[in-house]
């Protein structure tokens, strides 16, 4: 039966905020979730056993205990939950997954922040936009986060979560960051943390590690582009020749 299995009953939370980190374009949500869990040394709180989650066991280096591939971590001091995922949720079962999660959030007075990437190929600093359900628009106004300039949609499991939040009048916020669609984008994740999650929660977050990751990934992309260029120059090809009679 689909459910959220709370394993740490001793952690007390009071109307917490949840940051969702499902894998998506640019891996923005996953990078944000992993960063928060590591930076705050968050405790394992609950396993997500909802439709769409692959039945696999996840293990960590130097640890024998298995964990669910999609799970919640908690920080009681900051009243924060993070949904961390090591696997993609099946899009074909996104509706059942969203129903399972949304019901638990509503029952436990949790305000979710859903994260999504907006494909963008420019090298400009990523912009962060906000969308909302329930009373989420007031949260965005207080944080100074503007809506997207153009209309659009959020698809996949995160889109299903937003849809069910709207259908059930659950207060939620969707944070959308411009992101590179071809590579993991820690710069977009940093933008969401600094310009989205920080002003919404009031929690200070050190993002220096993400800046270093962004620089490393940019250098790796440039090296890849150079290798591809060299490969094009060295590859065999057919060319027309002038015929002499």
TrEMBL record:
Span-the-membrane segments of this chain are none
Region: Disordered, residue numbers = 226-245
InterPro entries (alphabetical):
Proteasome_assmbl_chaperone_2 (IPR019151), PSMG2_sf (IPR038389)
By what name is this protein known? 3-isopropylmalate dehydratase
Where does this protein come from, organism-wise?
A: Halococcus morrhuae DSM 1307
